[in-house]
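Case study B.
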Amino acid sequence: MNLPHPPDTAAVTGRLIDARLHLLDRQVLDRAALPVTTVDDISLSDVPAGPLPHASPSPTITALLSGAFRFTRIFGGRPPMSRLDRISWSDLAEIGTAIRLRAARDTLQVGWLERWVARHVIGKIPGGRHDPE
Amino acid sequence: MKRLFAVALGILTAIGGFLDIGDIVTNAVVGSRFGMSLAWVVVVGVIGICVFAQMSGRVAAVSGRATFEIIRERLGPRAASANLAASFLINVMTLTAEVGGIALALQLVSSVSYLLWVPFAAGAVWLVIWRVRFSIMENVTGLIGLTLVGFAVALFLLGPSWSELAQQVMQQGLPGTEKATTYWFYAVALFGAAMTPYEVFFFSSGAVEEGWTAEDLTQSRVNVLVGFPLGGVLSLAIAACGAVVLLPQSIQVTTLSQVMLPVAEAGGKVLLAVIILGVVAATFGAALETTLSSGYTLAQFNGWSWGKFHRPTEAARFHLTMIICLIVGLGVLLTGMDPIKITELSVVFSAIALPLTYLPILVVANDPEYMGEQVNGAVTNAAGVFYLIVILVASLAAVPLLIITKAGS
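Model:
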């Protein structure tokens, strides 16, 4: 029988993050605590197809993904690469009850749809750019 | 002094805010058909909404996370999408019923067909959401809605035999030709009307809108625990008016004017005018809450920014969602579908969807990662679990009863 090895104790002395519980479907907030998106999926560094070569390095998380992924997570398949909305792992500031980013929302590619609706629909309605009363 | 004023204001708006078109119509229908024999359901429902409204408010105040963010996070994409679809649909249905309710009430005072009032009502709801400050919006509609106390005044003016009403509460026999299935169908409907899920979405998101922290929890608890039961008393007064005037004459409530009949008989034009004002305010307030809730649920599920504390362009998809929902509701009403029928269906569907909303709240209210020291105590958990079972039973019974009784006809 080929039982899985017990995890390297040194590797779990840090905080244990359950991807499903602590990353997926979590709210992402920007530097100013403005909502950005929800984490729909996670991108890992390349894992070669076919049998893994001996002593291949373990994959690492490279980015949080958002967008059409929620459909593929339910129905299977892969979204086209053009639909990729990525938040680089290096932008993350904190993983708590929400995931906080170092960057401001407007500098992230992931907010393009919100910006489009703001500019072309809501911003066109009188009062749309007013501060809240 | 300022503190006292805030508490009083909170309680008063909670009373006025408790009642919506679903409560008004369902209680009148039930009173006119079953007397006070379903009063116990209102009591059970009010305690339930108190337990879960204060729980969702506490989760939002302590963790800063509103209900639908939590639903998505805990249920995962598949179950949460199904939940969103159901909750969102029922929310739009309730929104449609509320806008229809505003228009029906305006028809009573103006003799202009409600269909002409519908676009005006929907437009006014949007304008208030677009421009009016959250706290003003809540306080004004809540306070004017308090004039629904007129139903209790009407009951006293009618001078009913209190012992007979009390007897109706106690004895569970079915009046006339009513069947047991119809009785239970209306029990579920009344339960759904008292515990409508949108109130929880609205309550938890409103806590974030108003920037509640753990320090505001005592006040919110007082608002809920005093305001909602008093709102429940008004519900019972509406049912009792129906039981005293409509039941003996076997008048079945199918229009809003029939709901008003006991009021007109008891207090004449003046009381009628006061109550119509209350109905307009209560349905208008509920229309605002359901419209906002449709934006809240979709935005929180998708992680969009939401809330009236942002300028509209900073919560663009949130505002766009609300505009679309109002247009959809407007379209449905303009087909001429009876708003009272939509209301009756919406409370039953609310009952079906209740477990979807309440289970995730109960789970997260026990998670110390979110709640720290403020996790549920043993009493709240016992009450929460008990209600979850009641909600589940009501939810499972709703569809069979809907079919067997042909929607209570």
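Chain B has a mean pLDDT of 91. The remaining cases will be described in the next quarterly update.
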